[in-house]
Amino acid sequence: MAALWKALVLVLLEALLCPADEVTLKPKPARKPVRLFTDDDLRSYNGLKEGKPIYLAVKGVVFDVTKGKEFYGRGAPYNALAGKDCTKAVAKMSLDPEDLTHDTTGLAEEELQSLDSIFKDTYKAKYPIVGYTARRILNEDGSPNKHFQPEDQPNFSIKDEF
Ligand code: HEM
């Protein structure tokens, strides 16, 4: 009888000290943090400072284009694209200052298709992703955009974390 009581007390103690939830809960796999760039953050990577990496964004995805210094560095032909989200310029193959913007309003269907292929075949294939513009990660009111998905970039060991 004493043994039965002892067993009962042990079972009760275990139930009290180790609630079932605690035993069965498994930690969720942590999602890798991504770096958010404001326009000012991005501007400081405009290729003009010797020794500093060069970044640009296309479709809100920030790429480290430092290895394309001959295109984007100081005095290089596409330096105007560096340090900003230059989506429209890339879509139109234009260096016109008014096209140096993230805003794709008014682009023709062929320009949007061209943008997608340059995004995929040049930028994603050649340069590592280092983050995303605030516009891509947040809604206009500053709340997190629940539909945000980091880009898949299988050729690189992910650099879009901070
Ligand atoms: C006379 C006009 C142009 C010529 C002859 C020209 C020529 C070239 C050449 C030879 C490349 C090199 C490709 C390589 O080595 O991988 C290139 C790349 C490129 N061009 Fe142009 N281009 C011109 C105008 C433009 C304009 C106006 C833009 C505006 C956005 C532009 C955007 C680019 C981009 C984004 C790349 C890819 C650079 C990279 O690989 O990071 N090009 N262009």
From TrEMBL:
The keyword Signal applies. Residues 141-162 are annotated as: Disordered. One of its GO terms (molecular function) is metal ion binding. It is found in: Endoplasmic reticulum. GO terms for cellular component: endoplasmic reticulum; membrane. InterPro entries: Cyt_B5-like_heme/steroid-bd, Cyt_B5-like_heme/steroid_sf, MAPR/NEUFC/NENF-like. PANTHER family: MEMBRANE-ASSOCIATED PROGESTERONE RECEPTOR COMPONENT-RELATED, NEUDESIN. This is Neudesin neurotrophic factor. The lineage of its organism: Eukaryota, Metazoa, Chordata, Craniata, Vertebrata.
